[in-house]
Design brief:
- 49% of the residues lie in helices and 21% in strands.
- The protein is of the alpha+beta class.
- It folds into 2 domains: 1-121; 157-295, Glucose Permease (Domain IIA) (Distorted Sandwich).
- A hairpin with a 2-residue loop joins β7 (231-238) and β8.
- α1 packs antiparallel against α3 (31-154) and α2 (20-26) packs antiparallel against α3 (31-154).
- It is rod-shaped and about 180 Å long.
Length: 297
Amino acid sequence: MRTDRFTDRAVAAYKAGPVGYVEGFLSSQSVTDLVDRYAYCESALNSDTEMLEGIAALKRSTEVRRKLIEAERDEIAAGKRRLESERAALTSVRERRAAATTRLESAMAEKRGLLDRVESSQSRLRSLEAQLVEDSDRIEALLAAREARRAEQTQTPTVSITGSTSAVTGARFLWPAAGAVTSPFGYRVHPIFGDSRLHEGIDIGAAYGAPVVAADSGTVAFAGVMGGYGNAIGVDHGAGIATTYNHLSTIGVVSGQQVARGEVLGAVGSTGFSTGPHLHFEVRINGTPVDPMPYLR
C-alpha cells in the first residue's frame, strides 16, 4: 500500500541521516552527473509529496467513512429504540384490546343473562296474571253458584249490580280492619305487573297480625289459599252480596261456618301477590266486584 511504501522510504532516509543528499551531490563526477542526481532527488521529493498528499486524502476519506459509519450506527440504534418502543406500544394495544374484548364479552354475557331473566320474569308475570284472573273468576263462580243454589231453595231474587246500596240488609258494613285506605277501588298501575288494570277492591294499610273482622253477619263461603289472593276468606251475606278478605296471615274460620257482624275472621298478612302487610277487601254483587266504599260505615 501507499502508506507502507512511504514508511519504507522514511526508514531509509532516517538511516542515511541529514547529510545523505549533500554527500550525493558532492560525490558527483561531473556537472551532468550532478544535474542527474539533482533531478533524481527532486523526483523523489515530488513523489514523497504526492504520496503524503495521497495519504492525507486517504485519511480524510477514511474519516468521512468513519463518520458515515458512526451515523449509520446511531441511526440503526435509534431505529432499534423506535422498534422497541413500537413493539411495546403494540403489546400495550394488544393487551388493551384483549381487556376490552374481555369486558365486552362479559357485558354481552351479562346482557344475555339480563334478557333471559327479563324474559323469565315476564313469563312468570304472565303466568301470575293469568292465575290472578283465574282466582277472581273462581271467587265469582263460587259466590254465583252459592247464590244460585240459595235462589233455587228460597226463590228469593238476587240484587242487581246497578241496584242501590240500601239493598245491604238495611245497614252499612263495618270497617274490616284498623287502618286507612292505601289504594282505592278502580283502575291503577298494578304494583307487581306494572300495567293499568282494575283494582277490584280497596287496600287497607293495617299492621301485620292486626285482627280482620266480618263486615256483616253471614256464612263463610270459602276459607283457604286462593292463589294470588293468598290466604283468603269469602263471607256470603245473602241477597247476592258477599265480601272477601285477602292476603291474610292466619285464617280463623272454616267454610260453611256462620259468623256474626264484627267477629274476628283472621289476621292481616302479606300472602299471595302482595308487596307488604295489608288487607285487600272486596265487595261482590252476584260474584262481580264493586266499589266497597259506598257500603262501608
